[in-house]
Amino acid sequence: MEKVVFIQKYIGKSHPKRNYYDCNGGNDNNYLNYIEKGTSKDNSYLEYMGNELKSSGLFSSNGMLTSDEIKKIKNMLKSTGSVIWDCVISFESDYGKKHLYNTEQAIELLNNVFPKYLKEANFKVDNIIWVAGLHENTDNRHIHITFFEKEPMYYDAKKKAFKYRPGRINVKSCKELKMNIEKHFLSPKESMKRVRKLMIEDARSNMN
């Protein structure tokens, strides 16, 4: 069994569920709410991940998002002409519980590996808005990520105008992301975190 599974798809302007992902559905049933709260009337991920998912909240590269920041991103999604990308990083049960046990670690992980993924996939990193959430109460812990471009920055020579990037992302970028995740957890810093966690748990156990 793979330690890390990465699933990625894209939602263009004509996608039948575009309103769900760009928050134009007219109610609270949208993808950002699903990432944040772990519940959705849309069953596309419930079939894969199981029911009654629970999330630790929305975060970006700067940490946990406030309600005002989430509202701002939702408004950006409503008006964007960009493709919206939707990703899930899922971890084998024991591997995920050992290496990814809080949102702080998820933030640090994505700040380390996600910009590399974007660069490999030929995105301009500073032109990307991404939002993520860690879902913890299933056997396989997983991180949902959605991202889109701020501005069209790819020049179309035929139309002589800038356009948003097409949706398809090469397989090599996805494979390198998985490899970089495993490398991240093998770093001395992450090893020390695991040792410290075990020591704290042992001390608490002895006190009890």
Kindly summarize this structure in a few lines.
The chain has 208 residues and is an alpha+beta fold.
Describe the structure.
Helix content is 42%, strand content 22%. Helix 6 packs antiparallel against helix 7. The protein is globular and about 70 Å long. About 7% of the residues have low confidence.
Count of individual helical segments = 8
Main β-sheet, spatial strand arrangement: 1-4-6-5-2-3
Radius of gyration: 18 Å
Helix content: 40-55%
Coarse morphology:
globular
Defining traits:
six-stranded antiparallel sheet, two-stranded antiparallel ribbon, 8 helices, 208 residues, alpha+beta
Topology:
Blueprint: E1 4-11, H1 18-21, H2 31-37, H3 46-49, E2 55-60, E3 63-64, H4 67-79, E4 84-91, H5 93-99, H6 103-120, E5 128-135, E6 142-149, E7 154-156, E8 161-163, H7 171-185, H8 188-207
Antiparallel strand pairs: 1-4, 2-3, 2-5, 4-6, 5-6, 7-8
Helix pairs in contact: 6-7
